[in-house]
Design brief:
The chain is α/β, with parallel strands linked by helices and about 325 residues long. It has 3 domains: about 80 residues, Winged helix-like DNA-binding domain superfamily/Winged helix DNA-binding domain (Arc Repressor Mutant, subunit A, Orthogonal Bundle); about 90 residues, 3-Layer(aba) Sandwich (D-Maltodextrin-Binding Protein, domain 2), CATH 3.40.190.10; about 100 residues, D-Maltodextrin-Binding Protein, domain 2 (3-Layer(aba) Sandwich). It contains 9 helices and 15 strands. It has a 6-stranded mixed beta sheet with strand order 4-3-5-14-6-15, covered by helices on one side.
Length: about 325
C-alpha cells in the first residue's frame, strides 16, 4: 500500500521576497529596512516559511546569519525569477505612458465610417507602436468580457457603468433616393406614400429584426415597417443599392454625406425626418488608463468635440 505524501503549502510571494532580501543582506535588520517592515516581522515571516517548507533556511546567531544548504538551493532558483519579475515590473512602469500594444475597438460599420475612418490615417501614422484592431459587428457584446478596450454604439446600446463620450450631435436619419428612381417612380410626399414604393430594408446583423423607419418630432414620432424585396445587414449596401436606382433607403445623414454631396442620391421627405440618438465612444472606468487608449480617446474628442460622462446605473 503506497503512502500518500501531503502537498507542501505554497508560500506567499511576500515571504519569498523577504527570504531573498535576508539572504542577500545576510542581516535581518537591513532586510527589514529595505522592505519597510520591522525586523520582528521579517523574522516571523522566515519562521513561517521554514515551517511551511519543513526545512531550515538560515543558521543564525546573535552575530551572524548564514544560509543552510537548503537555503542556498532555494536562493539559486529564486533570485533569477525575482530578478526577472522586478525587471518586468520596472519595464511596465517605464512604458506605461508610451502608446504601444494592441488597441481593440468594437463598433458597427456605420460608426466606423462616420467616426473612426476620418481619424484613422493620422492616428496610425502618429502611433506606429499601436496595433489598431477594429472589429465591425452589429451584434451587441460585452466589450470587457470579449477583450475589447472600447466600443462605439448608439446611446441606448452602451453598457452601464461605462465612461461614455457622445460623438457629435444626435444622428439625423433621412430617406434617400437616386434621381433616376424618382424620375421613374415619382417622389413620395408623405411617409404613408412609402407603401407604394420600393423600399430597401436593413436588418440587425444576422437577426430577423429590421430597422424601423421613424418620422416626426421626437415627442410625437412614429415608426413604420416598410416593404421591399431587397434586404441588407449593413447601411453601406443600402446606400449603394439606392445609388443604383433600386429603391428608397433609410440611413444616417452623416453616413450618406458623400453620396448626397456628389448628387448620386437626394433626400426626400426631409420635413418628416427626425433626429435619433447620438453615437458614443465608451470604455470601462479605469484609474490608470493605458496610454494606447488615452491617445485614441483624445483623438476622437479632438475630431468630434465630445465631452465625457459616466453612464452609471442609478
Amino acid at each position: 500500500m503506497s503512502t500518500v505524501v501531503p502537498p507542501i503549502p505554497h508560500p506567499s510571494l511576500s515571504a519569498l521576497i523577504a527570504f531573498e532580501a535576508v539572504a542577500r543582506h545576510r542581516n535581518f535588520r537591513q532586510a527589514a529596512a529595505e522592505l519597510g517592515v520591522t525586523p520582528t516581522a521579517v523574522s516571523r515571516t522566515i519562521k513561517t516559511l521554514e515551517t511551511q517548507l519543513n526545512v531550515r533556511l538560515f543558521n543564525r546567531t546573535t552575530r551572524s546569519v548564514a544560509l543552510t544548504e537548503s537555503g542556498t538551493e532555494l536562493l539559486e532558483s529564486l533570485a533569477p525569477a525575482l530578478g526577472s519579475i522586478s525587471e518586468t515590473i520596472q519595464h511596465i512602469g517605464e512604458t506605461i505612458d508610451i502608446p504601444k500594444g494592441v488597441l481593440r475597438i468594437n463598433t458597427s460599420y456605420v460608426a466606423y465610417e462616420c467616426f473612426i475612418r476620418p481619424i484613422q490615417v493620422r492616428f496610425v501614422e502618429q502611433y506606429p507602436d499601436v496595433t489598431f484592431d477594429v472589429s465591425m459587428d452589429d451584434r451587441l457584446i460585452d466589450i470587457v468580457g470579449s477583450g475589447f478596450d472600447a466600443g462605439i454604439r448608439l446611446g441606448h446600446s452602451v453598457q452601464q457603468d461605462m465612461v461614455a463620450l457622445p460623438l457629435g450631435l444626435e444622428q439625423r436619419t433621412i430617406v434617400i433616393a437616386s434621381p433616376s428612381y424618382l424620375e421613374k417612380h415619382g417622389t413620395p410626399r408623405t411617409p404613408k406614400e412609402l407603401f407604394s414604393h420600393r423600399c430597401i430594408r436593413q436588418r440587425y446583423g444576422t437577426s430577423r429584426r429590421f430597422f424601423e423607419w421613424r418620422f416626426g418630432p421626437r415627442e410625437s414620432s412614429f415608426s413604420m415597417q416598410v416593404a421591399g424585396n431587397l434586404v441588407f445587414s449593413e447601411m453601406r449596401s443600402v446606400v449603394e443599392a439606392v445609388e443604383d436606382g433600386l429603391g428608397l433607403g433609410y440611413v444616417y445623414q452623416q453616413f450618406a454625406d458623400n453620396a448626397l454631396r456628389d448628387g448620386r442620391v437626394v433626400p426626400v421627405l426631409e420635413e418628416h425626418c427626425s433626429r435619433g440618438e447620438a453615437f458614443y465612444l465608451y470604455y470601462p472606468h479605469r484609474s490608470r488608463m493605458p496610454a494606447k487608449l488615452q491617445v485614441f480617446v483624445r483623438a476622437m474628442r479632438d475630431a468630434h468635440a465630445v465631452e465625457p460622462h459616466n453612464k452609471v446605473r442609478g
